[in-house]
Write a structure and sequence with these properties.
Blueprint lengths: L9 E2 L2 H5 L8 E8 L5 H12 L8 E5 L5 E5 L8 E2 L12 H13 L9 E6 L8 E8 L5 H9 L3 E2 L24 H27 L20 E9 H11 L3 H20 L8 E8 L9 H4 L12 E8 L4 H4 L3 H15 L3 H16 L1 H13 L3 E6 L6 E2 L6 E9 L5 E8 L2 E9 L5 H22 L1
Length: 465
């Protein structure tokens, strides 16, 4: 990070501050697969004309003032320093899947220069079994969360069928609560229960962030320096229609089905590596967007002072216990979906969420930014997996008229965990990405367990519902 400069622009947000500290450095790695080879000059032009003007942070470095507070300072950007074009070895079948995966793992460990804006774009003009080429976006999490960064990315895209129309996203239908029709007296037991559950959730969350550490298992090495270890990055694709079919039959959300599939896959992998570990208490951190809307807004709307979907890092963590694998739920994997749905539904609006935010603010106020970052670091490190889910366009999009996008997915980097998982929908598919500690978790076996989990759930949904 740069030393003190006299000219500063605007302060770094608290979460952005924590995500770029001595104990944490979290980044987002996005992959955009294309149907045709990429014109490098066109990408350079788009970066200058469209990407950089989106937000001042993209043309700013992080500096520290005399009081030790971090700020964004706008600088001149040399675009060529931020665009990387690797050269892969020549191979007989001309499909570079292995080289592509190795390259993702390589750049996952690389850190950003402290004297330049915190982003990079990698142009991979080599075909894989998935696409003709790919763009890789690596951005530091202090620039914004997934909602902000993807919202900015979507502003650079246009529909293939009709560029003049706005992008379409899958609808999110929520069942209206009947509690609004009840009297204050009839709601009293519910309100008392809400407060009690909130206090219990907060207490458990506090213990998980400080004292209660998940045991070492086949998905958690417990290494103190795990965030510096090499990672293997892979992904798997599922039909969104199959997931929606399960959703409709169980009357849950797509996110509930996703979490259930991941939980069952984790237990299948643990069972394959160490049978006794399936009953070990294992905790997941599920990331949630705390904005008042789930609909993507334009960049102009996000940077507006009174926006209900402001730019920045507006997220929270839910501690979710992963159900144990038993003889009964091994043959009924949809129980994992139902259990995940029940817990998330109760915790999504738990009072523990604002209480945890207040606690983090108090830690920063009385012990400083580094202490707050350490608390956040331990919240991640004491659990076994982090899961985040983003929604992508339902229709095909293009980056300029002649560069149609075939697939989009993303990863999070730098978390002090042996396993991180992400998911993103696009064009009727759900891409589940995962980064695993190299040499500790067998990435290909884990991928097989995810596929097996999905297959078993589809089979049970067709058989029993």
């Amino acid at each position: 990070m740069n030393n003190f400069h006299e000219e500063v622009s605007f302060p770094v947000s608290p979460i952005g501050d924590y995500f770029n500290s001595s104990v944490l450095s979290i980044s987002i790695l996005g992959v955009m697969e294309t149907e045709v080879a990429i014109d490098v000059s066109q990408i350079m032009s788009l970066i200058k004309s469209t990407f950089l003007p989106i937000n001042m942070r993209y043309s700013s470095t992080m500096i520290v003032d005399k009081e030790g507070n971090k700020h964004w300072k706008q600088v001149e950007v040399n675009i060529k320093e931020h665009v990387k074009i690797p050269i892969f070895p020549t191979i007989s079948n001309n499909l570079h899947d292995e080289h592509f995966d190795e390259y993702l793992s390589k750049i996952a460990l690389e850190t950003f220069p402290e004297n330049k804006p915190l982003w990079e774009i990698h142009i991979i003009n080599y075909p894989t079994s998935n696409a003709a080429a790919a763009l890789i976006f690596k951005l530091h999490h202090s620039l914004g969360d997934g909602y902000s960064i993807l919202g900015a990315l979507y502003s650079c895209l246009q529909r293939v069928d009709n560029p003049s129309l706005p992008l379409i996203f899958p609808s999110s239908k929520n069942v209206e609560s009947k509690n609004n029709e009840k009297t204050i007296l009839s709601r009293l037991p519910h309100n008392v229960s809400l407060v009690m559950n909130g206090v219990l959730d907060f207490g458990w969350s506090l213990l998980k962030s400080t004292k209660m550490v998940d045991k070492e298992t086949p998905i958690r090495s417990g290494n103190d320096d795990v965030r510096f270890q090499p990672v293997t990055i892979l992904n798997v694709s599922f039909s969104l229609d199959s997931i929606k079919d399960i959703k409709d039959k169980l009357r849950v959300s797509v996110n509930d089905v996703l979490i259930g599939v991941i939980f069952f896959a984790i237990r299948l992998y643990m069972k394959s590596m160490n049978h006794e570990s399936v009953k070990t208490k294992t905790t997941a951190l599920v990331l949630l967007n705390t904005r008042n809307t789930r609909v993507y807004k334009s960049v102009q709307e996000m940077v507006d002072t009174n926006s209900d979907a402001p730019w920045g890092n507006r997220l929270t963590f839910l501690h979710i216990p992963i159900p144990e694998l038993s003889d009964s739920n091994y043959s009924k994997p949809l129980d994992f979906v139902l259990e995940a749905s029940k817990i998330i539904k109760r915790k999504r609006y738990s009072l523990a969420i604002p209480m945890n935010a207040v606690l983090l603010d108090l830690v920063k106020k009385f012990k400083g930014t580094e202490a707050a970052a350490r608390y956040l670091h331990d919240t991640l490190k004491n659990t076994s997996v982090t899961i985040s889910h983003m929604v992508g366009p339902a229709n095909q999009v293009a980056l300029a008229k002649n560069l149609p996008v075939k697939g989009i997915y993303f990863f999070t980097l730098g978390s002090p965990q042996s396993l991180t998982m992400t998911a993103m929908s696009y064009m009727g598919r759900l891409r589940v990405g995962f980064g695993v500690e190299k040499g500790f978790i067998d990435a290909h076996k884990f991928k097989s367990c995810i596929e097996n989990s999905m297959e078993q759930m589809i089979k049970e949904a067709k058989t029993n519902f």
